[in-house]
């Protein structure tokens, strides 16, 4: 009995000492939208460090604290090759950030197509969405009201979403972004280790229509 008691006490002690659970914030968008600069800003990098940020090739992770919450920022490359594997990071996402280059109207239709495909995935069906109309300091940048219309954002249903105008390079709109993320996360619980592994996707493979198309599983 004493050995059992000691074992239980040791287990409970390890649980008390274990770090607080971590939330996952996924940053997506086309290449050159400014995702890596945004991630650096959210990571409280200096102005000099932000100016030297290079585009993400595959994936960059930053482990941060937003007030008292532990957050893992996952900045995924927006290159076409990497977009084909975005879906592998959807399962444990708590917040989705989609970055738009407001100064490049010619790629808005491409951004809309990618955003639609992301939002159709059932693994993100209830994940809060933050759209960032980035590069507002650039000449010819479109206002968020126009981006809402061009991307058809008013049709989004079933999830909380918000759009902010920002400039990652200049640091404008970063505080609002952090506040929005914190307000969403403080009412959530991060996915447990059990839920991450024992899910339909883990057990049975891709279950979304979009994934079946990717893997040639459609009739």
Task: Show the helix and strand layout.
Elements: H1 2-17, E1 22-29, H2 35-42, H3 47-51, E2 59-66, E3 69-76, H4 80-83, E4 95-101, H5 108-120, E5 129-134, H6 144-151, E6 161-165, H7 174-185, H8 193-197, H9 200-204, H10 209-214
Parallel strand pairs: 1-3, 1-4, 4-5, 5-6
Antiparallel strand pairs: 2-3
GO molecular function, one term: metal ion binding
Binding site for Mg(2+): 36, 56
Protein name: ADP-ribosylation factor-like protein 6
Give structural notes.
GTP binds at residues 29-36, 78, 134-137. Belongs to the small GTPase superfamily. Arf family. The chain is of the alpha/beta class. It has one domain (20-193): Rossmann fold (3-Layer(aba) Sandwich), CATH 3.40.50.300. Helices cover 37% and strands 19% of the residues. It has a six-stranded mixed β-sheet with strand order 2-3-1-4-5-6, sandwiched between helices. The protein is globular. The chain starts with a helix and ends in a 5-residue tail after the last helix.
Summarize, please.
The chain has 10 helices and 6 strands; from the N terminus they run H-E-H-H-E-E-H-E-H-E-H-E-H-H-H-H. With 219 residues, it is α/β, with parallel strands linked by helices. It has a 6-stranded mixed sheet with strand order 2-3-1-4-5-6, sandwiched between helices.
């Amino acid at each position: 009995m004493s050995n059992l008691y000691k074992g239980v006490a040791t287990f409970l002690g390890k649980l008390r000492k274990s770090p607080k659970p971590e939330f996952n914030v996924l940053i997506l968008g086309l290449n050159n939208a400014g995702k890596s600069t945004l991630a650096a800003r959210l990571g409280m990098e200096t102005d000099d460090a932000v100016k030297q940020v290079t585009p993400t090739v595959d994936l960059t992770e930053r482990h941060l604290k937003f007030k008292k919450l532990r957050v893992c920022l996952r900045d995924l490359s927006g290159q076409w090759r990497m977009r084909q594997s975005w879906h592998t990071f959807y399962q444990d996402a708590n917040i989705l950030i989609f970055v738009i280059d407001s100064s490049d109207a010619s790629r808005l239709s491409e951004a809309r197509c990618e955003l639609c495909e992301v939002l159709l995935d059932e693994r993100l069906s209830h994940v809060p969405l933050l759209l960032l109309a980035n590069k507002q300091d650039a000449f010819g940048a479109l206002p968020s009201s126009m981006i809402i219309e061009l991307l058809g954002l008013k049709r989004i249903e079933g999830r909380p979403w918000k759009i902010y105008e920002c400039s990652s390079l200049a640091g404008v709109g970063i505080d609002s972004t952090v506040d929005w993320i914190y307000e969403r996360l403080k009412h959530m619980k991060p996915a447990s280790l059990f839920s991450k592994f024992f899910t339909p996707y883990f057990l049975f493979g891709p279950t979304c229509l979009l994934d079946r198309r990717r893997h040639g599983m459609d009739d």
